[in-house]
Amino acid sequence: MFTGIIEEIGILKSIKHGTKSAVLEVGATKVIEGTRVGDSISVNGVCLTVTTLRPNSFTADAMPETLKRSNLGTLQSGNPVNLERALRLGDRFGGHIVSGHIDGEGTIINFKEDENAIWITIGADDSLLRYIVEKGSIAIDGISLTVANADTKSFKVSIIPHTRHETTLCDKPIGGKVNLECDIVAKYIERFSGFGKQTSAESSSSKISMSFLEENGFF
């Protein structure tokens, strides 16, 4: 498990593509301190298992499902990536619960300066937006952020200077793809509320509504 607090910006040293999978070598310093083969490191929000450790880098395998769901497969040597080691018992929990299991990709629509902050609008598919709510949590390329606004086509986050300087998010281009992991709590609520009650035809529609939340004590 991760918290979405980025520890370091690493550099992709190489990516070796197989038929559907890939092997990544990532240059890093801080996140390999105390790390062992078999440990987990979040790379742009994707939980990867360390397979080899070198003095200034580590390698990890990316399976086909990972490349399908995330932007890792489109990276090239020299690209920066957000890195975070897995949470240890007793660590400070500064972000939110991040599993490192990407739900899908979003697309950066625009940036807007607002004094010391930057507003970022990100477009996403309906299957992701259903779990994104105003003032809720979202992990974008592994960064724990608060949703400032959400509608039927997109959502917005506001980036403080520290996040701007310590992550790669504001260096992305308009139209750039970002990895999205929705708040796991929302997915569990939906699953529990509808488990055993949905037919295959109903499985694509959410059972969560304002009246449901009020009836069950969420408001």
Question: What is this structure, in a nutshell?
Answer:
With 219 residues, this protein is an alpha+beta fold. It folds into two domains: 78 residues, Elongation Factor Tu (Ef-tu), domain 3 (Beta Barrel), CATH 2.40.30.20; 82 residues, Elongation Factor Tu (Ef-tu), domain 3 (Beta Barrel). The chain has five helices and twelve strands.
Description:
The protein has 219 residues and is α+β, with helices and mostly antiparallel strands. It starts with 7 loop residues before the first strand and ends with a helix. The chain has helices at residues 64-69, 126-129, 161-166, 184-194, 210-215, and strands spanning 8-17, 22-27, 40-43, 46-54, 57-62, 80-85, 104-114, 117-123, 137-140, 143-150, 154-159, 177-182. It has two domains: 8-85, Elongation Factor Tu (Ef-tu), domain 3; 104-185, Elongation Factor Tu (Ef-tu), domain 3 (Beta Barrel). The radius of gyration is 18 Å and the shape is globular. The strands form two sheets. It has a six-stranded antiparallel β-barrel with strand order 1-2-5-4-3-6. The protein has a six-stranded antiparallel beta barrel with strand order 7-8-11-10-9-12. 33% of the residues are buried.
Write the layout of secondary structure elements.
Elements: E1 8-17, E2 22-27, E3 40-43, E4 46-54, E5 57-62, H1 64-69, E6 80-85, E7 104-114, E8 117-123, H2 126-129, E9 137-140, E10 143-150, E11 154-159, H3 161-166, E12 177-182, H4 184-194, H5 210-215
Antiparallel strand pairs: 1-2, 1-6, 2-5, 3-4, 3-6, 4-5, 7-8, 7-12, 8-11, 9-10, 9-12, 10-11
